[in-house]
Input
Amino acid sequence: MLVSRAYIPDGLLPADDRQRWRWPFTVPAVAELADRGLEFDQPVTFLVGENGSGKSTVVEALAEAYGLDAQGGRAGRKYGNARPKTPLGELLRLETTVEGARMRGGARLKRKGYFLRAETAFGFMEQVRGLPGYWQEDTSRMSHGEGFLTVLQSMFGEPGFYVMDEPEAALSFDSCLRLVALVYELGRSGAQVVCATHSPLLAATPGADIIEVGDHGIRRTAWDKLALVDRWRRYLNAPDSYLRHIVGSTDPSQT
Ligand SMILES: Nc1ncnc2c1ncn2[C@@H]1O[C@H](COP(=O)(O)OP(=O)(O)OP(=O)(O)O)[C@@H](O)[C@H]1O
Ligand SMILES: [Mg+2]
Output
C-alpha cells in the first residue's frame, strides 16, 4: 500500500460557508470526503455508485493529488499541455505509507503509477506509443478491447499508484476477468489500485475494499450488499420484470 488516506487540510477548506454550496462540494460524496477524509484499508479499492454520484470527480482528484495527470497517463511524465488541476485536486492531500512517501519523494521518473481514463485513453494511447516507458505495439491495429488490455498489461507491471475510471468500458466478460487477475496481482505486489466502476464483475476482485458513493455520501459496503449487484442479479434472473416497465408488454402476442 502506498496511500492510506485522502483529505482536505482544515486551512484549505473554504472558510466561507457559501463556497460549500458550490460544485464539487454539492456532491454528497465530495462533501463527506471534505469533512472526514477517506481512508484506504486495502491495496485495491473500488468506487461504485450511480451516474453523477461523484466517482470520476474523486478518482481524478486522487490521481492529481498523487501527481498523475487527470487526462490520463503515467506518473513522472512531463505534460506538454499540462492542464490546471480540478477544483478538488487542488485541495486534496494524501497521507502515504513509508513506501508511498519514498516513491512520491523520489526522482520524477521513479514515481510509478498510471491514470487510466476510458474516455481519453484512445487518443492518448496513439500519442505515446513507442515512447520510452510505454508499449511498443501499434494499438491502432487492434480492437478497442485488445488495445486496452495491451496498455493495461504493459503499464501495470510494477508497484505504483494506479487509478482507473471505468476500465471495463471496452472489455468483454473474459477480458474483464483478465483485468481482475491483473488488479489482484498488482494489489499483492505492493501496488495500490483505486478504480471507479459500474462492473459487478470487477468489484468482486478478491480482498478489495468497496466504497459505495451516492446521496448518502460515502459508505463501505460488502460486494453482495451493493445495490449494483442486487440489480444485476434481479435483471439477469428475470429481464422481463424490468423491461415491462420500460417498453410495456414484452409478450410478442400483445404487439
Ligand atoms: N466541471 C464540472 N462542473 C460542475 N459540475 C460538474 C463538473 N464535472 C462534473 N460535475 C457534476 O458533478 C457530479 C458528479 O460527476 P462525476 O463525473 O464525478 O460522476 P460519476 O459518478 O463519475 O458518474 P458516471 O458514472 O456517469 O461516470 C455530476 O452531477 C456532474 O454533473
Ligand atoms: Mg464517471
